[in-house]
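Tip: read the tokens left to right.
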């Protein structure tokens, strides 16, 4: 019988594969940032509410209250990452995001008492090195700015906070309820930002609608699966799985928008994926797999 930890790892891998489409969609869209984010959250909220109803679940004030902080961090992380991608090179933004597992390793030990094997740290270093190799061959050009890099750093720290909060909340809420509530909270928080920014809330034009829907459905499903995984996989492993986001983006860019990919990039992808695969086929800590929730 397949354990819940194995299923959780599979859900995490699929989640990252779906979320990696996000930067490509953002790069292709010309819609102002806050308008795009508002409608992305609006569409995602509708999708999640339908999923919730199909499962026979309902929203409660208690669930919304428990999900509010996750929604706040989720909204802010989207804003900062979106702004970073529009103000610095994709290479710089990806380098900063690749540091996320390092931050989560420290938090996992302090907040959740995860005692990891030495091999986990060593293979994590190999995986991050693979990411650096993957993106080091991508030319940053004149798009890179210090301000954009700072925005990417803040976005990375907010994402770490979102992961930590989500793991805590998943002890009390199922993934569908939590994802629905946090997305609704994020939508409420983004609305005044969109109005203040001057971008407004006007619906996208026909040509932009498919990008908004794609962002809500594809990476949105990834976020739902990742929150499912939080209940069954240790935080340090979630951070490591998320490393694959950084190696999938250049592959998707080559596939979907014809960006070039070199042998050095391919080698980096192979190293990162191989290291993650090795780690996910063995216990991460000294006590074996985490308890099922």
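Filled-in amino acids:
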């Amino acid at each position: 019988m397949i354990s819940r930890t194995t299923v959780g790892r599979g859900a995490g891998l699929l989640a990252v594969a779906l979320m990696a489409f996000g930067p490509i969609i953002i790069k292709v869209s010309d819609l102002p940032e806050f308008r795009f984010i508002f409608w992305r959250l609006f569409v995602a909220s509708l999708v999640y509410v339908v999923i919730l109803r199909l499962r026979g679940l309902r929203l409660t004030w208690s669930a919304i209250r428990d999900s509010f902080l996750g929604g706040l961090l989720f909204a802010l992380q989207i804003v900062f990452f979106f702004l970073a991608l529009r103000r610095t090179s994709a290479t710089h933004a990806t380098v900063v995001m690749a540091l996320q597992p390092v931050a989560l390793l420290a938090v996992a030990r302090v907040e959740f008492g995860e005692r990891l094997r030495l091999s986990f740290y060593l293979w994590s270093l190999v995986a991050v090195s693979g990411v650096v190799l993957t993106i080091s061959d991508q030319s940053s050009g004149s798009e890179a700015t210090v301000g954009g890099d700072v925005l990417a750093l803040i976005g990375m720290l907010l994402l770490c906070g979102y992961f930590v909060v989500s793991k805590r909340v998943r002890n009390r809420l199922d993934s569908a309820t939590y994802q629905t509530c946090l997305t609704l909270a994020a939508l409420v928080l983004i609305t005044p930002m969109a109005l203040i920014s001057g971008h407004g809330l006007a619906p996208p034009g026909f040509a932009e609608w498919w990008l908004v829907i794609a962002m809500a459905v594809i990476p949105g499903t990834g976020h739902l699966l990742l929150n499912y995984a939080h209940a069954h996989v240790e935080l340090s492993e979630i951070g490591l799985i998320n490393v694959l986001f950084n190696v999938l983006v250049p592959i998707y860019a080559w596939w979907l928008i014809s960006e070039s990919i070199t042998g050095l990039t391919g080698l980096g992808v192979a190293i990162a994926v191989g290291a993650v695969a090795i780690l996910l086929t063995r216990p991460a800590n000294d006590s074996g797999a985490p308890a099922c929730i």
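The CA atoms of residues 22 and 219 lie 6 Å apart. The chain has one domain: 19-280.
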